[in-house]
Amino acid sequence: MKLYSTNNPALSVDFKEAVFNSLPQDKGLYMPHEIPALEQDFIDNIDSYSLPEIAFKVAKNILQNAMPDEDLKSIIDDAIDFPAPVVKLNDNTYVLELFHGPSLAFKDFGARFMSRIMSHFLEEGEKTLNVLVATSGDTGGAVALGFLGVPNTQVTILYPKGKVSPIQELQLTTNGQNIRAIEIDGTFDDCQALVKQAFVDAELNERFRLTSANSINISRLIPQTFYYFNAYAQLKKEGKSDVIFSVPSGNFGNIGAGLLAWKMGLPVKQFIAATNVNDTVPAFFKSGLYEPKPSIATLSNAMDVGNPSNWVRIMTLFKNELDEVKRVVSAESFTDEQTRVAVQEVFEKFDYVVCPHTAIAWLAVEDYRKVSGDYSSAGVFLSTAHPCKFPDVYEGAIALKVEIPEQVRSLEGKPKQAVEMGADFDVFKSYLLSN
Ligand SMILES: *Cc1c(COP(=O)(O)O)cnc(C)c1O
Q: 91, 100, 69, 85: which is closest to 230 by C-alpha?
C-alpha cells in the first residue's frame, strides 16, 4: 500500500511511515494511491462472513502487502473482539450499534486497531513511541483504553476543560501507567491546533518519536470501514439491499471511512452527514463556500468541530468536485433543541434510548425520507456512543432505562490525574520537553 499527501499527490510513502508520521510534513493528510474494489463475489456473498472475516478481507484489500496475512489476522482478532450489531427498530429503520467496545464508543474500532498496528511496526530497541491526541470527548477514552499497558508507548491526551462529560473525563484521567491527560483551558480546536503544531515542531520531533492517534491517522480510518461492510451483510440477511447510512459527524472520520468502503465497492445508496450546529459541511453543501468556523459547544459535544480535518480526504475521493460528492452524500444540521426532542421521540416510538450524537443521525434519516420520498430503503443510523455517557441529557422514564455497563462502574471513585494548561504552544512544548 502506498499513500500520498492531500497537499502533494506525487508523494509516496508506505503504510508504516504513514501510521507513524500520522500527518505528512506538508500538513496534508495521507490517502491511499489506490483503493481497489473488492471482488464482486465477496460482496454478493458477504452475508456468509463473520465480522472478523469481513474485516480481514477488507483490510487485506486496502493494505495489500503491508504486513503478513497471519499478523493482520491476529491484529484484527485481538482488536475487533466485540460485536457491531444492526438493531431493527421498524421495517425500514435500523440502528448500527458501535458502542460495545471498552470505551463504549465507535472510536474503539480505530484506537484498538491502530495501537496494535503501531506495536506491530515498532522495532526492537526503538525509542518510546509518543502518542499525542486531541479529544473532544470520546477519542481520548478510546485511545487511553486502546493503548493502556502497550509496551514502549506513552500517550498524552489533550481535552478541553469543562467540555467533556463526567464519564468521558473518568476514562481520560484515571488510567495512570503509560497514559497522561492534559486539561486545556480552551476548545477542542485549540487542543487540535496544539497537537498539529507539535507534529511540525522540529525540536519536538528530534527529541521524541511522535505520532497521532486522532482520526487523521490512516490506521484509525481503515478499521472503521469494517463495520459498514458488516452492517450491509446483516441487512442483506434480512433481504434489504438498498441501504442508507446516516452518520453523526464531527471531524468526518467516520463518514470518511464509510465513503472509503463505498469506493471499495460497498453498494450504499446514500450517505447522510448529520451534524449539530457546527455546520461547516452542511453550509458548504448549500452555499458552495467552505468556511471553517470556531466550534460551538452543544449537547453532542464529540461533534463540536468547526473545521473538520477529514473533510479534505472526502473531497479527494471525489476529485475535489462538490457536485460529485452530492451524488452520494447529503448533509444536514440540527440544533440542541431538535436533539432533545429526537431523544424523546425515539424513546416513545421505539422504546430505545439514543445518545445525543445518535439522535442527530436519526433526525437526518427522517428528514432525508421526507425530502427524497424514499421510504423503502433501509435507513441505518449509526449509534456512535452508549447513552450512559451523557447522563445529563435524560430525565424520567428515559433516564431509568439507561443502564450503566460494567466498563464504567469500575472507574467510579478512581482519582483524577490531569495537568491543567492554557492553549499556549510554548507552555505545552516545554511541558513535553521536561516531562
Ligand atoms: C467522535 C464522535 C463523533 C464524530 O465522529 P467523526 O469521525 O469525528 O465525525 C460522533 N459521535 C461520537 C459519540 C463521537 O465520539
A: 85
Distance, CA of 185 to chain centre: 24
Q: Exposed, middle or buried by CB within 10 Å (0-12, 13-18, 19+), for 124? A: exposed
Cell, residue 338: 431538535
What angle separates helix 51-63 from helix 218-237, to the nearest 10 degrees? 130
Q: Where are the alpha helices (DSSP H) in 38-152?
A: 40-44, 51-63, 69-79, 107-121, 138-147
Tell me the three cell numbers of residue 341.
Answer: 426532542
Return the CATH class of domain 55-103+219-406. alpha beta
- Which one of 2, 16, 107, 416 is the catalytic residue? 107
Whether the pLDDT of residue 138 is over 90: the answer is no
Q: Whose CA is nearest to atom 1 of ligand 1?
A: 302
Is residue 60 annotated as part of the catalytic site, yes or no? no
Residue pair 223/190 in contact (Cβ under 8 Å)? The answer is no
Ligand 1 probe mutation, 384, 386, 390, most atoms within 8 A of CB: 384
pTM of the model: 0.90
Helix (H, G, I), strand (E, B) or coil at 265: coil
Cα(385)–Cα(245) distance, rounded to whole angstroms?
16
In the reported structure, the alpha carbon of residue 355 is separated from the centroid of ligand 1 by a whole-number distance in angstroms of 12
Residue-wise pLDDT tens digits, 320-363: 999 999 999 999 999 999 999 999 999 999 999 999 999 999 99
CA of 2 to the centre of ligand 1 (A): 27
